[in-house]
Amino acid sequence: MMLKIKNLHASVDGNEILRGIDLEIGAGEVHAIMGPNGSGKSTLARVLAGHEAYEVTAGEVLFEGQDLLDMDPEVRAREGVFMAFQYPVEIPGVSNTYFLKAALNAVRKHRGLPEMDAMEFLTLVRQKMKLVKMDESLLTRPVNEGFSGGEKKRNEIFHMAVLEPRLAVLDETDSGLDIDALRIVADGVNTLRQADRSFLLITHYQRLLDYIVPDFVHVLVDGRIVRSGGKELALELEAQGYATFEQEAAAQQPVAAGA
Amino acid sequence: MATTITESTESIPGLPAMSEATAPWAAEFERFQQELPAGEPEAVRTLRLRGLERFVSLGFPTQNQEAWRLTNVSPIARGTFTRSTAAETTAELKPEDIAPWTFESAARLVFLDGRFVPGLSHRDGLPSEVIAGSLADALDRTPGEVEPYLGKLGTLAKVADTNPFVALNTAFLRDGAFLKTPRGVVVKAPIHLLFLSSAEEGRPTVSFPRNLIVAGEASQMTVVETYAGTGAYFTCPVTELVSGPGAVVDHYKVQRESREAFHVAAFQVLAERNSAPSSHSISIGGGLVRNDVNAVLAGEGIDCILNGLYLAEGKQHVDNHMRVEHAAAHCSSHELYKGVLDGKARTVFDGLIFVHKGAQKTDAKQSNRNLLLSPDSIANSNPRLEIFADDVKCTHGSTVGQLDDDAVFYLRSRGIGMEAARSLLTYAFASDVVGRIKVDALRHDLEELLFARLPQGEVVRQAV
């Protein structure tokens, strides 16, 4: 099992957002988590990546059998967990290429591999750029600074391609993309699909799943997975909207005293 | 000591009553006057005397005065300093002593404790019509070149009226750099002014470098001032810059004094029409540091840039006071000052943009950003606007904050360690100003210095 999430509860500023998530992702599988705004999708992604603003109050997460929650964010990355950000951060003054080289060498060092020199790295980067049809000028610019929304998302996939993670969490990578950009991003992800690499796609819309076809779909409402199924579940969602699932979730809730 | 003071004050008629702190300086002034050569112009002697009078009447500033509210100079007022007088000490300075501070330059003027060191200076890359030498030489040999400008720039006379340190420098002015480019002459390589200070046999020294830079009409030059030293001492420099019509002058000041040093400096710019003066002030060293920058935009079409970076850690105190006066229409001024604070550092930024009544179409922008790396550091920021024209664009902003948590997390999520992520972001913050430095060698030196100051500087060096 690549990832095993058991009864995961997490809060931010004292508000419980995740209320008992159970999820297992096998090697090579692509899972999609869909849900309405505020359901806790992005919280799940950030908890997996190790964002300090989120407090895990109960449950456990095992990544290839290891306690993921016990690791610092950088250790998770070095172990092979990657998160593509919904809102990639602009970092003025740090060039995209050099930043990525520092990241890759940190990952390689952790895995006992020799550091890459500038020439090897450049060859690798050129090859990976083609995956997401990135303009070469984006390499020398500061990380995400002045990038368009689409360029930022493509840059995330580009980072993923270079770092070659075992588990990639894509947090609303489709949001804000036009159809052409979406295709490019999806093509990039599809190229990176392989037997020992798993994906967790977090999205609000079914549209992304037309291009990246998942093995499993989960519906997240109010901090819990209320339904899981195959790729056809996404189509059901598309037809019905989230309303029925939200009602189902409400029906499962214990009624608060006095309500 | 008391008798000395009495004797000396009697010989300067009309001097106001002195405080305990100013009296030793008046006594020192007496000794200083006796060392001066006889041939100096009368106007210069008068200028000095007026400086002393102002200093004595103002006294050292206290924190009751608005301009000094957050900077306590009592360690200077209480201190005892030795003014370097022996010319032969400058002969002891060796090339290897200055090597860490130098770079390829069109000319280099070296000063030790405020006195010119000809043996280590050169002007090999300068056209013969450019003047680059010691102010003392110019006062003795070509006073006519100096007199029209010295101590008369823009509001400097007015500033000297209120800033006791400018008055004190003026009282003791003698040596420093005198640079002058004639009309239309372009000097591309930088002219480097290096000021080194040293404690003399354990006694703190004091120096009063006085620099005068005159850029002729449509001329171009780049000047770098470096201040450095060892031990405890007090540097009190004043630099005056006249940017003639259409002149392009890039001025850099790199303050790398010792941690025990006091550094209280003033930089006065008088810009004439269509000129483009720029100033970058980098403050790294010093224990107690104060920089006053005063720019007067006196003609139309001036494009003035005043940038700065201060790094303060431990118990360093760094105060930057800026005043930009728009006295004519159609001028722009852009100020960006950034500070990185660690330890128990205290910094002050006070920036005034003053727009005179007739200065329509002024485009003035001022920004002060502070990055606090430790919970015990304090950055004070006080941007001010005073506008007496009605068709202007003036903006100012200031921020004091910590490293952006989201950015740190983003870097860590890619495998970069916590400390390295913080170092990388700190570097990025500071390099915004360093990156604007056009003198390659200087920029590289400062980048190296940043790497050395960051906990994970090696990672940063690899990553930028």
Q: What is the tally of helical segments of chain A?
A: 10
Overall mean confidence score, pLDDT of chain B: 92
Beta strand % of chain A: 25-35%
Radius of gyration of chain A: 19 Å
Helix tally of chain B equals 13
Principal-axes geometry of chain A comes out as globular
Report the major sheet of chain B: 12 strands, mixed
Tell me what portion of residues of chain B adopts beta-strand conformation: 25-35%
Q: What are the low-pLDDT stretches of chain A, counting only 5+ consecutive residues below 50? A: none
End-to-end CA span of chain A:
42 Å
Shape of chain B: globular
Report strand order across the widest sheet of chain A: 6-9-10-3-11-12
Query: Total strand count of chain A, please?
Result: 12
Query: What is the CA-CA span between the terminal residues of chain B?
Result: 57 Å
The number of distinct β-strands of chain B equals 22
Helix content of chain B: 25-40%
Keywords:
heterodimer, A: 259 residues, alpha/beta, six-stranded mixed sheet, four-stranded antiparallel sheet, 12 strands, globular, B: 464 residues, twelve-stranded mixed sheet, ten-stranded mixed sheet
How would you sum up this structure, described in words?
The complex is a heterodimer of chains A (259) and B (464). Chain A has ten helices and twelve strands. Chain A has helices spanning 41-49, 73-79, 96-110, 118-131, 137-140, 149-163, 179-192, 207-211, 232-240, 243-252, and strands at residues 3-12, 15-25, 30-34, 54-63, 66-67, 81-84, 91-95, 142-143, 167-171, 198-203, 216-221, 224-229. A six-stranded mixed beta sheet of chain A has the order 6-9-10-3-11-12, sandwiched between helices. Chain A has a four-stranded antiparallel beta sheet with strand order 2-1-4-5. Chain A has a two-stranded antiparallel sheet with strand order 7-8. In chain A, helix 6 (149-163) packs parallel to helix 7 (179-192). The longest helix of chain A has 15 residues, at 96-110. With 464 residues, chain B is of the alpha/beta class. In chain B, 26% of the residues lie in helices and 35% in strands. Chain B is built from 13 helices and 22 strands. Chain B has helices at 2-10, 23-35, 42-58, 74-78, 95-98, 135-141, 143-146, 156-162, 164-171, 405-412, 418-434, 440-453, 457-463; strands spanning 82-83, 107-112, 115-116, 131-134, 177-181, 191-198, 205-207, 210-215, 220-230, 233-235, 238-243, 248-256, 262-271, 276-283, 288-297, 303-312, 317-326, 332-341, 346-355, 363-372, 378-387, 393-401. In chain B, strands 1, 4, 5, 7, 8, 10, 11, 13, 15, 17, 19 and 21 form a twelve-stranded mixed beta sheet that branches. In chain B, helix 1 crosses helix 2, helix 3 runs antiparallel to helix 9 (164-171) and helix 10 packs across helix 11 (418-434). The radius of gyration of chain B is 22 Å and the shape is globular. Mean pLDDT of chain B is 92; it is low at 1-11. Chains A and B meet through helix 2, strand 7 and helix 3 of A and helix 10, helix 11 and helix 13 of B.
